[in-house]
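Have a close read of this protein, sequence plus structure tokens, and explain what the tokens say about the fold. Thanks in advance:
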Amino acid sequence: MSSVFKKTSDRKRPNSCWYIAYTDHDGVRRTKKGCPDKTATEALARKLESDAELRRRGVIDPKADAYRFHQSRPLAEHLADWKAFQLGKGVAQRHADEGYARVVKLVALAKAERLSDLTLARLQAALALLRGMGLALRTIHHHVRLVKNFSRWLWRDGRTREDLLAHLQLPENPESDRRRERRALTDGELIRLIDAAEQGAVRCRLSGPDRAMLYRIAAGTGYRSEELQSLTPESFALEGAYPTITVEAGNSKRRRRDVQPIQPALAAMLAPWVAARPKGKPIFPVSRWAILTGLQADLRSAGIAYTTDEGTADFHALRHTYITALAKSNAPVKIVQTLARHSTPVLTLGVYTHVGLYDQAPALDALPDLTRPAPRSEPTILAPTGTDSATFECHKVAAQGKRAGDGLRRNESGSDVMAGSDVAECMNVSSGKTEGFDGSCRVLTCPDALGSVSAAGARPGLQNR
């Protein structure tokens, strides 16, 4: 049962509000503020008690209250909760901040303030505004994926009845509008870069030899800059036949513990350098912007262009160099994909593998030589059977008679043909039928007049068949 009361401190205050005590559908005793009018507050108490009873009986869906509550909250509060959820499941702070900022920007362009404002029409219009600002399609794709992730989280967390943006369409293929194309360094450029860093001065709190080791590890493992920044001396296992460098799951982009094998020669070079590093502390304690600044200076010292027609040689280009070298080694695609730590070979071969004309030319050796003339082949003479022998000799006799001029006559067109008597002699024509032929015109018997030709391959007893 519900009850209406005033707080002790409000009893002597005029126009103070009444309060309602009632039991909700879950059996929890709750208190709700009413209004200064006692009669109106009692009516509200009866309404609360009635709704609780209807919910207990399943007439009213209890989730409807939750939907109404979340609908009344500003969208900014939901975005803050979503960012906290991302951080809670292990997303790096930098990625969580970037994703939050992009969704906030897109929501602001859509002029959405409540959950009900997240409609397809508004979001598509906001995406058009982003495209009008000159953003690349790849960046717009990232905005779309993030806002769809936010909408899916709202639905899974019970804040909306459905995924509001499930049918939001992605723009056209982002590969048609790539603004930043990275290139893989050649072997000569990579050696010159490492040598320039080795001889270089301290830049961005990293000495020249330390930067040279950074480039060697990056080009020998394919690790990203954030993953390299997390490495400590404990990450290196340089003894044994299979030396490795490990990035823990919390620092890996794919949130898995990555154990990357390296070349024994590189391990031998790294061993004394790693042994001199302080235990438990990062061996590259600088920001990724500092790493990029140092790389650009070393590229200039090595005489390597930062940007060419093939693409940009930023720090991530060292990962492209690593994967391209693996692809050129003729290793199986699955091995290359595993070492690249990609979820699909399409990403490995389509984005990170750079193959030039000089790499494609050797593959053309497997094609046939299209400049050679066709070989001249002699006609093949099959061994005659007894039946074919008789037919062949019959035509042979007719041809010899034609060459000798025997039994030739002119037809209406003026060409020479055999006389009917010669054909009858050869084919033994009688009563309008040709002996020795069936419906398929195959020679079945050889005439006696051609007995001399039966010896050429004819089987005994052929004339009696």
